[in-house]
Design goal:
The structure is a single chain. By secondary structure, this protein is α+β, with helices and mostly antiparallel strands. The chain has three domains: about 70 residues, wza like domain (wza like fold), CATH 3.30.1950.10; about 100 residues, Outer membrane lipoprotein wza domain like (Outer membrane lipoprotein wza fold like), CATH 3.10.560; about 100 residues, Outer membrane lipoprotein wza fold like. It is about 20% helix and about 25% strand. It is built from seven helices and 21 strands. β5 and β6 form a beta hairpin. The longest helix has 25 residues. The protein is rod-shaped.
Length: about 375
Amino acid sequence: MSIIRRTRPERCITTFTAAVLSIAVLSTSYVAGAQAGQQGGQTSGAPPASSAPQPPGRGSSVLVSPDEDYRIGPNDLIDIRVDNMPDLTQAFRVTASGTFLMPYIGRVTAAKKTPEELALLIADKLRGDYLKDPRVTVSVKEYNSRSFFIQGSVRSPGVFQIEGKPSMLELLTLAGGLTETHGANAYILRRIKASAPKDGEPVAKPVAAANDGNGEQDSAAGETPKYEMKSANINGLLKGRFDQDVLLEPGDIVNIPASDVFFVAGEVNAPGSFALKDGTTLRQAISLAQGTNYKAALSRGIIFRENASGKREELHVDIGAVMSGKKEDLAIAANDIVMVPNSKTKSIGGAFLKAFGMSTVSRVPF
């Protein structure tokens, strides 16, 4: 698990290539900065590695956002050091309510505070009764309230501990980038927080509730969690449409399914399944199948397509007219089956050609 320190990204990125290069350089500088911080022994440097649960064979990473200071959240493990008071120099686990119990001064609210703000709060509580000029240092040992999940067609799926609010592009970079089989879209699953009752509404019976990194109450314990889903076009993002770059929140699950496929069967030279890309058309599908052969009945082509209810419908299409440009090209949908039927007359003619030792002729799209 790598620890990545804060740095300032280069500005004025004019092209997508420059954006990707800057993110790569940023990641390298994060790692180098973390190593330097550990050697220097400064408490204000990079925090120790997170011990959050890790998926089998995968690690979790820590990214420090350059946009905001980290704010402590529930379940974080914080390390507090107080000069001349060894009893208070220890690690504390923040509870689900965002507090922890500290000797001498009692319960302290840590949620939504930066380590520096929490250090000042503790120093104020110790000043006078216990120490004349308390010197307090707070650092975060485990960032358990800042978990982001990514799965699907990425090279290193898993859990990442990230400070601040990263974008989907940053999380994709931490996950090693996309695999060759990635689909066109990414889906972000976000848990819906329970809303507070309005004035006049009956108050529900109190139950144990979870709490997110912003101190907001989540769905009540025992209830089935509810999620909302957002989608973003990965192909568009990679081509410079940065409006598709979604800002993520702690607990978000990013799923990037593998590419959809379609099938070409019948009288084509290379039947089989093919990855569906954005904008794939019938003409391109026939080209991927290396064209039709001499036995094809092009005027009687059929596309089997699933409708909204999951049943397959038959779309009759004149493939020859489409290939010659006489009819408009058709868009291919996920799981389409393009069938190029056999012409009995042409099959009989082909048998005569073979009988006379003549080679078969293929129709290759122009």
